[in-house]
């Protein structure tokens, strides 16, 4: 059972982005708050389709629809997410400072493992980490270094991640058939839940 989570999703500036979309042609829009008006949707759809044929600059209004979310995901997911650096920001929990420094003992639920690896994690990795954490001869810096070296890529780390609709569209279209279900199931499901995802984020999937 996957433990990856997307919490506290917020979408900002839909009205502002659609208003700015109209400025080049000095048009007047009909978007109010988070509800895109019919006239604006016609223009936005034309620009989106033009960006598919020509270049992404036509749909640059998507860059101004902003998204923030708390993502709890395994480190191996974050290693791939780090591919998308331009236009994104993330603040993460620190493994260096949190690992066994507050009397919190790591348990199986702190990792995203397929069932086949549960016994290995429970009987080998976690006991070894506990042994290191409780070895009095190790100074704190040494203990943390050893724990980080032993920490599996399946460790679940929370990050507050910010991006925009253009970035999310690109990630979705590149990853919705990915071999890792963290992308093809979890990220895709979250992206589909965003406002106007069908119109702006996932259209290519349906062509």
What features would you describe in this structure?
- The protein has 207 residues and is α+β, with helices and mostly antiparallel strands.
- It has two domains: 5-73 and 84-90 and 158-206, no CATH class; 100-150, no CATH class.
- It is 43% helix and 14% strand.
- It contains nine helices and four strands.
- The mean pLDDT is 88.
Q: Describe the global form.
A: elongated
Structural class of the helices, strands and pairings? alpha+beta
- Percent helix among the residues? 40-55%
Number of domains: 2
Strand order of the largest sheet: 1-2-4-3
Q: For the terminal residues, how far apart are their CA atoms?
A: 31 Å
Rg over C-alpha atoms, rounded to the nearest angstrom: 21 Å
**Largest β-sheet summary:** 4 strands, antiparallel
Poorly predicted parts: none
Range of strand content: 5-15%
Mean pLDDT: 88
Instruction: Tell me how many strands there are.
Output: 4
Order of helices and strands: EHHEHEHHHEHHH
Specify the number of helices.
9
């Amino acid at each position: 059972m996957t433990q990856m989570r997307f919490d506290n999703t917020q979408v900002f500036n839909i009205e502002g982005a659609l208003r700015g979309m109209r400025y080049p042609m000095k048009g007047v829009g009909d978007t109010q708050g988070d509800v895109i008006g019919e006239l604006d949707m016609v223009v936005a759809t034309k620009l989106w389709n033009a960006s598919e044929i020509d270049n992404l600059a036509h749909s640059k209004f998507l860059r101004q629809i902003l998204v923030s979310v708390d993502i709890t995901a395994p480190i191996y997911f974050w290693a791939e997410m780090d591919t998308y650096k331009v236009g994104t920001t993330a603040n993460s929990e620190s493994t260096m400072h949190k690992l066994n420094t507050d009397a919190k003992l790591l348990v199986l639920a702190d990792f995203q493992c397929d069932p086949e690896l549960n016994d290995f994690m429970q009987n080998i990795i976690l006991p070894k980490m506990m042994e290191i954490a409780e070895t009095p001869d190790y100074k704190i810096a040494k203990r943390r270094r050893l724990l980080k070296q032993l920490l599996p890529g399946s460790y679940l780390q929370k990050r507050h991640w910010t991006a925009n609709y253009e970035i999310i569209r690109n990630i979705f279209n590149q990853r919705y058939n990915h071999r890792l279900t963290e992308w093809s199931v979890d990220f895709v499901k979250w992206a589909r839940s965003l406002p106007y995802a069908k119109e702006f984020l996932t259209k290519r999937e349906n062509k």
